[in-house]
Amino acid sequence: MWSRFFHLTVDAVLISTILASVKRLTGIQPATSKIKNKDVRGFADQYLGVGEYVLDATILYLSHSSYFERRR
Known about the structure:
By secondary structure, the chain is mainly alpha-helical. The protein has one domain (2-63). 71% of the residues lie in helices and 0% in strands. The protein has helices spanning 2-26, 38-63. This is DUF1748-domain-containing protein. InterPro entries: Mitofissin. Pfam families: Mitofissin.
């Protein structure tokens, strides 16, 4: 039971991170303003915020790693 819950949580975070990457690269983002229920809209914004946080943390970690380099 816990392994399934953990797996679904990791999948949800990965999807949120992919959506944050799409937002960062293209400017296209989910239209949470169209969600009428403010509680659900708040949850969706928090969910997308988790993806932003994970993306930022990953970029920070990889930028300090000797296995990755920035090309311009």
